[in-house]
Amino acid sequence: MAILPCFGIFCSLIFLFSMKASLAADTMTTASFIRDGEKLTSSSQRFELGFFSPGKSKSRYLGIWFRRVPDTVVWVANRDRPISGRNAVLTISNNGNLVLLSQTNGTIWSTNVSSDVKNPVAQLRDDGNLVIRDNSSDSTAESYLWQSFDHPSDTLLQDMKLGWDFKSGLERLLSSWQSAEDPSPGRYTYGLDIHVLPKMCTFNGSVKFTCSGQWDGTGFVSALSYTNFIYKQFMTENKDEFVYWYEAYNRPSIMTLKLNPSGFVTRQIWDENSNKWDELFSVPDQYCGKYGYCGANTICSLDQTPMCECLEGFKLKSQVNQTRPIKCERSHSSECTRGTQFKKLDNVKAPDFINVSLNQSMNLEQCAAECLKNCTCKAYANSNVTEGSGCLMWYGDLLDSRRPIRNFTGQSVYLQVPTSESGNKKLLWILVVLVLPLVLLPSFYIFCRRRRKCKEKETENTETNQDLLAFDINMGITTRTNEFGEVNGDGKDKGKDSWLPLFSLASVAAATENFSMQCKLGEGGFGPVYKGRLFNGQEVAVKRLSSQSGQGLKEFKNEMMLIAELQHRNLVRILGCCVEQGEKILILEYMPNKSLDVYLFGM
Ligand SMILES: *[C@@H]1O[C@H](CO)[C@@H](O)[C@H](O)[C@H]1NC(C)=O
Ligand SMILES: *[C@@H]1O[C@H](CO)[C@@H](O)[C@H](O)[C@H]1NC(C)=O
Ligand SMILES: *[C@@H]1O[C@H](CO)[C@@H](O)[C@H](O)[C@H]1NC(C)=O
Ligand SMILES: *[C@@H]1O[C@H](CO)[C@@H](O)[C@H](O)[C@H]1NC(C)=O
Ligand SMILES: *[C@@H]1O[C@H](CO)[C@@H](O)[C@H](O)[C@H]1NC(C)=O
Ligand SMILES: *[C@@H]1O[C@H](CO)[C@@H](O)[C@H](O)[C@H]1NC(C)=O
Ligand SMILES: *[C@@H]1O[C@H](CO)[C@@H](O)[C@H](O)[C@H]1NC(C)=O
Ligand SMILES: *[C@@H]1O[C@H](CO)[C@@H](O)[C@H](O)[C@H]1NC(C)=O
Ligand SMILES: *[C@@H]1O[C@H](CO)[C@@H](O)[C@H](O)[C@H]1NC(C)=O
Ligand SMILES: *[C@@H]1O[C@H](CO)[C@@H](O)[C@H](O)[C@H]1NC(C)=O
User: Fold this and answer.
1) 3-class DSSP state for residue 463?
2) Structural domain boundaries of the chain?
3) pLDDT tens figures, 11-32
4) Distance 133 CA to ligand 3 centre (A)
5) What does each C-alpha distance from 368 to 142, 332, 423, 565 come to in angstroms?
6) Binning pLDDT at 50, 70 and 90, where does residue 437 land?
7) Which atom of ligand 3 is nearest to the CA of 123?
8) Ligand 4 contact via 260 beta carbon (within 6 Å)
9) CATH architecture assigned to 477-601
10) Signal sequence: where (predicted)?
11) More confident residue, 107 or 507
12) CB contact at 8 A, 52 and 63
């Protein structure tokens, strides 16, 4: 670019027009320019464009500010190229570009309009937008070749849009000043995050610093807002753009949304009476508002102590001296052995949309059903909060959930809660209550049947008198494994009730040498236990429930319950019983080992 000749022309122009002030004008043409000290003023005197020095800085910048509040600069042209002297000028070149020139350094800053422009005009509009347009009759009035609203600094004004222009691929973001005296871009940016569902996020470099909840149609879930009486917010999504903007109800009011050098986004409104800014809010707060303040799988509640807690279904990794962020892991070791319950969390800001799936046509019930199907699904919620529709499911760590301060409205999130330890105990109780009767009832039925048979059999042949002696434990155990199974194929009458063979008192007496003291192993709460010997040399334990102490069916039932449990644990097996002449005798597997004694006698 031929800067020098151009620059020479401007030098002479400066000299030539030095007496001509363009103070009240809002428009620049190729024939006009602005020097340091001069301004463009928008038509109804709301905004001014000119040169300024921030704070104590000596550097000069070209900027835009509210005429009523000159100290609050809302846009800066040469953010990272300060001008050292007061000799710069702004002009519009023949090719339609605004150019900031300094006498010593040439072009400091310039727009980048590349189209062929016949009659370029720059105008400071009354909304604070500095625009370049073609004023020739054949160009459409409202199409701008360039506008400062597309290149925001740290301030969002009314009608300015944050977000994506898909046609140009332009993303409009606020970027913080380096410091109050240095408008060069700092480390913080603020903009519309359109990943999954739209929300506003501030980044510290490439790291999230704070995020709002998702857009709910009039505002952001759980975010502070005054949308009902001070300003309205808008979100537009179509093929051309996906943008956010706002508008005050009282349009002429002076309002800004500013990203300050330390990353805080402040919405303020100018109080005409006291002549100062009124701060509506500043985000984030020092705690929960900060992204992931408490760590993964936590919930942060500003008004609770401790502020950071593990979400339901997660537990602290270690109890000792947890500093923030705390570490929470699933309270269940295996991800897949979770229960089928959901815990509803009311009025919260949902976790960030990382590793989520979204289906906007599903309802909450379908969402729950879908979440249940996949053991990696940790939580679900409605995606459209106001409508109560749509389905969001989280598969990864749950980051950045918080309870909104005071009563700003959040949403409901349903956490998949793994079966807890107490849940397991419950399950055991259910087993005990439901399954044991199932086990015991048939056995009592059999017992009773047997008892009747016993009486019938008393008159039968004497072969039965040797039944226990001739018994084979291993076979008995084999048949016992079929205890709830079908009738044994061997057609024997006993096969039907094979799970509990009934032995004759005579054979039991023979095996225990007529209940001799030598065979007695010990005495438990319900009676003595004897060791019995069978023909094949196998040994059995014979428990003779004492009839003296008035034990009846109830005690027998208790015994059965105990044995049933023992059997369940495979510690001791019941081989059969004998109910004859008022005797109630259990024949048990004999294990010559102390622990068995404990089970047999210690009650
Ligand atoms: C302008 O020129 C001066 C002197 O050469 C130099 O010190 C200063 O850094 C330059 N400024 C810019 C923005 O290039
Ligand atoms: C200006 O725009 C042209 C084309 O649109 C592009 O090639 C060039 O890199 C841009 N220059 C700057 C400084 O952005
Ligand atoms: C724009 O063009 C119209 C006529 O076409 C003219 O009257 C008006 O002064 C022009 N505006 C500027 C700022 O040059
Ligand atoms: C922003 O990031 C920088 C660099 O990682 C870090 O030093 C600084 O503390 C962060 N700021 C805040 C407010 O967290
Ligand atoms: C929620 O659903 C309603 C009805 O379909 C729709 O008008 C509204 O835009 C949706 N809200 C959001 C935030 O998508
Ligand atoms: C916990 O913190 C206290 C005080 O900060 C310290 O005295 C103590 O040793 C810590 N305990 C452990 C287990 O780290
Ligand atoms: C969303 O859910 C509906 C209803 O369950 C289903 O028909 C549709 O295929 C789903 N869409 C996606 C993208 O999964
Ligand atoms: C569970 O969800 C994850 C994440 O969406 C997916 O990769 C996985 O295939 C799903 N598993 C089943 C069984 O649907
Ligand atoms: C999301 O999934 C990826 C891939 O499975 C994993 O590396 C990442 O840690 C997950 N993020 C969260 C927040 O769970
Ligand atoms: C909370 O809600 C109640 C009733 O809805 C309202 O009176 C109160 O002002 C609200 N408080 C805040 C801090 O918004």
Assistant:
1) helix
2) 20-179+223-259, 298-421, 477-601
3) 444 444 444 444 469 999 998 9
4) 11
5) 49, 20, 20, 38
6) low
7) 13
8) no
9) 2-Layer Sandwich (3.30)
10) 1-24
11) 107
12) yes
